[in-house]
Amino acid sequence: MLRRFEALGRPRPEHVDAVLITHEHSDHSSAMAQMAREWKCPAYLTELTHREILKLCEDGPVRKIERIEYVRCGAPFEIGDIEITPFTIPHDAADPVGYCFRSNGTKVVIVTDLGYMPELVKHYLREADLLILESNHDLEMLKVGPYPWYIKQRVMSRTGHLSNAVVSEFLADTEVFDGHARHVILAHLSEQNNNPDVARISAEEALGRRAAEFAFHGTLHVASQRVPLGPFEL
Fold first, then answer.
1. What confidence tens digit (pLDDT) does each residue in 119-173 have?
2. Does domain 105-223 have CATH number 3.60.15.10?
3. Max CA pair span of the chain
4. What CA–CA distance (Å, rounded) separates 229 from 7?
5. Of the residues 86, 116, 169, 232, which has the maximum number of CB atoms within 10 A of its CB?
């Protein structure tokens, strides 16, 4: 996180209001304790997710976090002038969530780690000004890739991860994706089972299939695990 601030030409933050956790898997929660201690800020997460993290880290520093704030799906809360609403997503975790942020008429949504897109998720994605959406894998690359079969089955399941194809179906469907977003960011790409160019081409083709009256006029971005994006002005 600190290297990303530096890469954007921004100084190390002296103050952070909160750390928000989506679920307990290590690639989403392992830095929670360090960040909460570094900035003396609370960690926000669901009670079930917190319980699962405590079970996974019986002797870890996560038990020393001084301030834990529990959130509930569908129940908005505020941090400063930002209203935040957690919402349920389908993933193989204890209580996984996406987050919707609203402030001064602007809406930002982040949703990764979900096996499919239920109507509830589609509801929260509507009218987003900035949308961060998982485009985890190319199905054919996953099938012939290095993962053992049981992991491939997990990734492809309804509690796994979104494929490029599913994301493309969403982006092309004018009844579910309103095209309102100024920025769409494809995120959480697998390094083994996807390629940024493949994900981008798939999404661009889908956006190009939209009828003219529902055309997407925003900008499509592909997130990298090594090079930060942004900042974005909304």
1. 999 999 999 999 999 999 999 999 999 999 999 999 999 999 999 999 999 999 9
2. yes
3. 57
4. 10
5. 86
